[in-house]
Amino acid sequence: MTSPSPNPAAIDTLGKLADAEMGLVWYCDDCNRRMELTLVRAIEIWGRDQVFIRWRPPIKCGGCGSRSVNCRVQANTAIGQPTGKPFSRP
Length: 90
Ligand SMILES: [Zn+2]
Description:
Rubrerythrin, domain 2; 2 helices; 16% helix; elongated; binds zinc ion
């Protein structure tokens, strides 16, 4: 078992990001290529408890082969739309 986040209120893990209807995108620092990796897939690989803050994901850029890949939070465009799921969950 991985230990839970020390601050339950902070969105600092992949699972919490998903719960908050946020997305995560990965960019190569060297060539600025965007990885074809979704938050859902990342959770499948690394689990919901993976902390993404100051995280160096163990992936390699498909363009230049660099391992300097960083992730950034991306707002999900579904938020606020009538058909979207509610932002907060019980
Ligand atoms: Zn690259």
